[in-house]
Amino acid sequence: MDKNFWNELALKWHIAALAPMDGFTDSAYRQVVKWINSDVVCFSEFYSADWIVHSKFLANSVLPHNEIEKPLIIQIFWKDPEMFKKAAILIESYWIAGIDINMWCPAKKVVRSWHGSSLMINIDTAFKIVEEMAKSVKIPISVKTRLWWENWDNLIDFAKWLENAWANLITVHGRTYKQAYTWKADWTWIYELKNHLKIPVIWNWDVENHDDWMTKLNWLNWFMIWRKSFWNPWCFLPWDYKPTLIEILNTMEKHSKILIELKGRKGSLETRKHLVQYLHSFPWVKNYRKKLVMVEDFNQVQSILQEIKIEFSSFLDKKINEIIF
Ligand SMILES: Cc1cc2nc3c(=O)[nH]c(=O)nc-3n(C[C@H](O)[C@H](O)[C@H](O)COP(=O)(O)O)c2cc1C
Family assignment (predicted)? Predict the structure, then answer.
């Protein structure tokens, strides 16, 4: 990919992004999302730049990816420009489409050690990080940030600094650092920001699905979804798409298979949390919850799914929202 990657994609009005999410947006889930809508651009979970540089084993477990995940964006966090630069060079060598810098994370231990959203108030370092990375690799550099620190007065100046340091895209989460995880979404400042930048801007926060985004997009380039996408990768499809029961069961099977193939025993344990959630709006999920949270391997997943298919064979082609007790 070259530095025009985001600009060229932004010309496609319907593009959506899967948000980075620690512990969730791993290769298996990204493959599921792309399988349902190949136009979605996936962001990885965040990884420490230091960790990527110093552990070949760890880098080799998170950077190689499946062809279907392309174009894949890897998100990293850290605090000093030199480490970011080294990580960027290494990441580029794994055929990654772009690197995203986490200036979003508000966790206390992250901010106290000058990582994540603390970079919003450490503007010289933030500028240097983007500039050093942009100079060192051919792939685009993007930043995921917040409305700013305490209020949004400095959002536009901050974003312009990043643009001047050669950032190729900015994603803005509609809360300040101080608002952490609460507060109602306010779109005004994101729309205003777009008026001041040449690079594409992604809005992130409280987007329900593709149709919701269409009403909010205005002149922004993209939207990014996290919470509403999980266990509902169909949210990226238009017309308020609702999957049928068989689509959900097949997706559960696919997700588990990839997860367990990639992570072995760890994958079997992780798949438990996903399986139950996929069926959260299925009225009879409670009959299967106990079994699903105890699965040990893929064979067990398959046999439980088969049981559900047999017991509810007359519902398989029904949309999940039309299945009523
Ligand atoms: C548990 C959790 C982990 C997250 N991990 C990351 C992360 O690694 N990197 C990041 O930039 N954002 C992360 N986020 C934030 C999401 O990407 C997103 O900005 C946030 O959930 C708001 O979008 P939504 O309203 O669509 O959920 C995380 C959020 C949560 C709740």
Answer: Belongs to the dus family.
- Give strand pairing partners of 225: 18
Distance CA 188, CA 197 (A): 15
Query: Ligand 1, atom 29: nearest CA belongs to which residue?
Result: 21
Place of tokens 């279907």: 68
The token pair that represents 141 in the structure block: 């550099």
What is the dihedral sign for C-alpha 99, 227, 173, 115?
Answer: negative
Residue identified by tokens 């205005």 is 218
Report whether 173 belongs to an annotated binding site: yes
Q: CA 139 to CA 101: how far, in whole Å?
A: 13
Which atom of ligand 1 is nearest to 207's Cα?
26
Residue with tokens 């039309």: 322
The band of 213, judged by pLDDT with boundaries at 50, 70 and 90, is confident
- 177-188, pLDDT tens digit by residue? 888 777 676 677
- Ordered by start, the domain boundaries in the chain are 5-236, 245-322
Does the pTM exceed 0.90? yes
Q: Give me ligand 1 centre to Cα 303, in Å.
A: 33
Q: Which phi-psi region, left, alpha or beta, contains residue 231 (left: φ > 0; alpha: ψ -120 to 50)?
A: left
Distance CA 308, CA 141 (A): 45
Per-residue HEC secondary structure of 80-112 comes to: CHHHHHHHHHHHHCCCCCEEEEECCCCCHHHHH
Does the annotation place 302 within a ligand binding site? no
In CATH, what class is 5-236? alpha beta
